[in-house]
Specification:
Blueprint (H helix, E strand, L loop, with lengths): L2 E9 L6 H10 L3 E10 L10 E3 L2 H13 L8 E4 L5 H14 L2 E4 L4 E2 L3 E2 L4 H13 L2 E2 L3 H8 L6 H14 L3 E4 L5 E2 L4 E8 L4 E8 L21 H12 L5 H22 L19 H5 L10 E3 L1
Parallel strand pairs: 1-2, 1-4, 4-5, 5-8, 8-9
Antiparallel strand pairs: 2-3, 6-7, 9-11, 10-11, 11-12, 12-13
Helix pairs in contact: 1-7, 2-3, 3-4, 4-5, 5-6, 7-8
Length: 304
């Protein structure tokens, strides 16, 4: 059984960072240990929170405790997400070498329309360290553009961005979402590329809408969930233990989609949807998450 060390943020209440990533990995049959780079009461979308961010020395101290017990080399995969201290990235890079592990990196930098939500110097750190060492990279469009300087305006430019990311180092890349859509906004388009096996594909990421979310600025009623990127990277990490990369992507999308649908099902009867109502209902989707590896991945991934 593979063991994953998941290094990212954590919230006490809600599903974000490790609170979103760890449970699906366990459901999919992998052991997972959690190292929290951030520990907040709740995610920042609520507007107020308490807690602290770990500095590099604190992360190093926790790893030293694992090292003293001989556990570092027990890790098969290092999954990384949100961090704010740039030194942590180098610590993870060194850890990957020491453990001889595969690094699955979600380079959390920001998103559209909000922009960067980490210090600007983390862009360079991820470009120079994470991209050189990570085997798998899962940026969104904004993050891919930040890392490469290549603006995505259509599929052609998106593939140019993918090639630029490959030039930085990672062999397997999934741009999880872009501003491009299909079927009148029913699907967001993403891209995957596996250089090791010369496989490319287009991803169709389902977009969920709800009339309770319709506003002047959101006429389509697009439902804003939190923690979906963390969950996707975690499910991709877990499925990649037994499936080819492109199939793992499709099965991970299914697991996330099932969770979003379970979340909205839990909201039946409510007249309004709060951020608390939209915290991911992974418990409600647990059986579908567990069985997502047998799902027809071609619903969400079209090989090119």
């Amino acid at each position: 059984m593979q063991r994953v060390l998941s290094i990212q943020s954590h919230v006490v209440r809600g599903k974000c960072g490790n609170a979103s990533a760890a449970f699906p990995v366990e459901l999919l049959g992998l052991e997972v240990d959690r190292l929290n780079t951030v520990q907040f009461s709740n995610h920042t979308g609520y507007g107020s929170w308490t807690g602290k961010m770990l500095e590099t020395a604190e992360v190093s101290s926790l790893l030293e405790g694992l090292r003293n017990k001989g556990w570092i080399k027990k890790y098969d995969v290092i999954l990384s997400g949100y961090m704010r201290d740039k030194g942590i990235c180098q610590v993870i890079s060194d850890l990957v070498d020491e453990a001889g592990a595969t690094w699955v990196c979600d380079p959390v930098l920001g998103d559209y329309p909000r922009g960067l939500y980490v210090p600007e110097d983390l862009v360079e750190v991820h470009r120079d360290i994470s991209c050189k060492k990570a085997a798998v990279l899962t940026p969104n469009q904004f993050e891919a553009e930040c890392l490469t300087g290549v603006k995505i305006t259509d599929e052609k430019s998106a593939w140019n961005c993918i090639r630029a990311l490959h030039d930085l180092g990672p062999q397997k890349i999934c741009i999880t979402s872009t501003l491009m859509t299909e079927e009148n906004g029913k699907y967001m388009i993403g891209l995957l590329s596996d250089n090791e096996n010369s496989i490319r594909g287009k991803i169709r990421m389902p977009v969920l809408t709800d009339k309770r979310c319709v506003t002047k600025d959101n006429e389509s009623g697009f439902v804003q969930f939190t923690g979906t990127g963390d969950m996707f990277a975690a499910c991709l990490c877990a499925h990649s233990a037994s499936l080819p990369f492109h199939q793992a992507v499709g099965c991970a999308i299914y697991a996330v989609k099932a969770t979003l649908e379970a979340t909205l099902d839990r909201c039946q009867g409510l007249t309004d949807l709060s951020k608390a109502d939209l915290e991911l209902n992974q418990i409600g989707a647990r059986h579908k998450i567990m069985n997502s590896g047998s799902y027809d991945w071609t619903e969400f991934v079209k090989l090119l």
